[in-house]
């Protein structure tokens, strides 16, 4: 249990360090900031460092959890992620709204991690 927490923490730290080393416009982890057809929320994320960092943390945590969960729970996690993405997209260019969606999703992912069944 302690080992998994350490891995998640170190992965998050690594992801944040990686983002800080990349050029600003291309540093979002879950989509390409260089695409010509970016949605309004994606443009804001690419242009706002704190949102960009939140995106990296969210996608890293999501990917780790997906690998740790049994098959049935993975489907729910992915469905919840799709619903969350629609909610984020509905924010458009509203930075505070986008930030709130990331805060909410990261709390949900942290809760999912805490609820993982772990071998004793």
Describe the 3D structure.
The chain has 120 residues and is mainly α. It has one domain (2-114). The chain has helices spanning 2-21, 40-47, 49-68, 71-90, 95-114. Helix 4 runs antiparallel to helix 5. The chain is elongated, with a radius of gyration of 15 Å. This is Lysozyme inhibitor LprI family protein. Keywords: Signal. Residues 1-25 form the signal peptide.
Instruction: Give the topology string: H per helix, E per strand.
Output: HHHHH
Number of discrete helical segments: 5
Percent strand equals under 5%
- Residue stretches low in confidence (pLDDT < 50, at least 5 long) are 16-26
Query: What's the number of extended β-strand segments?
Result: 0
Major beta-sheet overview: none
Overall number of structural domains: 1
- Average pLDDT taken over every residue: 82
Choose one word for the global shape. Answer: elongated
Structural class: mainly alpha
Rg calculated over all Cα atoms: 15 Å
Q: What is the share of helical residues?
A: over 70%
Question: Ends: how far apart?
Answer: 9 Å
Organism: Rhizobium puerariae
Protein name: Lysozyme inhibitor LprI family protein
InterPro entries: Lysozyme_Inhibitor_LprI, UCP037256
Signal peptide: 1-25
Brief synopsis:
This protein is mainly α.
């Amino acid at each position: 249990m302690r080992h998994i927490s350490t891995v998640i923490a170190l992965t998050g730290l690594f992801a944040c360090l990686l983002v800080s080393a990349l050029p600003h416009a291309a540093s979002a982890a879950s989509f390409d900031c260089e695409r010509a057809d970016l949605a309004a929320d994606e443009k804001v994320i690419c242009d706002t460092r704190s949102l960009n960092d939140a995106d990296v943390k969210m996608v890293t945590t999501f990917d780790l959890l997906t690998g740790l969960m049994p098959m049935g729970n993975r489907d729910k996690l992915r469905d919840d992620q799709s619903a969350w993405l629609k909610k984020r997209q509905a924010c458009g260019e509203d930075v505070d709204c986008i930030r709130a969606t990331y805060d909410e999703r990261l709390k949900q992912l942290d809760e999912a991690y805490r609820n993982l069944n772990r071998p004793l």
